[in-house]
Amino acid sequence: MYRVHIPASSGNMCVGFDSTGLALQIYNSIDFEARKSGLVIEMDTPAPFIPTDGRNLIVRAARRAADRMGKRLPGLYLKQYNRIPHTRGLGSSAACIVGGILLADTLLGAGWSREQVLSLASEMEGHPDNVAPAIYGGVCISAKAEDGYLVRPVPVGEDLAVCVAIPGFTLSTRKAREVLPASVPMKDAVSNIANMGLLIASLYERDYTHLGAALHDRLHEPYRKTLIQGFDDVIQAAYDLGAYGACLSGAGPTILIFLPAGKQDFERQLQEKLRSIPGGWKAVLTDFDRRGAFVETL
Asked: Which parts of the sequence belong to the GHMP kinase N-terminal domain (predicted)?
């Protein structure tokens, strides 16, 4: 029996639309082993919205990987431990895809590199901003190249912490994509390019003075926040408590917050403020996952 652990991920980091993301210490895990035939899928807690047949995203990813490897996947037993909130902008689908590919790689002994895993995962997900940090850990910048994807890690200091504000409602990626315009003004594109540079410089230099300004996006957040009840109030609450910056996590509705490490009371203080904001928000103080997905033998 094996177990694969896959971290949650926050795509975009606001200004790095579809190209930049970070891994968080919130994990989905999958126990798995080969069977002679058939498919058995169990959940550690009830999850009626997750298919337990061939439509399951983990199984689909594993079968796709097996096809790419030129091998046949055996019968499977899976048990899912779902800790990443579903349809909240924390990379739950990316975790399933990465987990499924690593499952196939383990059972079939293909010995795939991280680059090969990334290539197929990005193909299935549609973009690399979530799957890259789920695979590599930390903060990752990814770009499409002629022969695959280029990934570069960005160092993150131990003096920077992360908190997420997760609402009680969901937001599908499809709906969040539908509100985006087909084109944007040149000045908005230039603004995002400039702020992306400022964001990377802030992380490299470990100078977070202008991190809030660097997270000012014009390509997707202004449109998507209209779908998220209490968005502006949650952002303001985070800044009032001393956060360096706050922005939409992926397509939303979760909000990603950067703060100084060591602020252990931040979660409690933010939760007190969230109680008065509609939407059933919950504060979760976490940290960067710096390892990425991995498989262990049980």
From this structure: 56-138
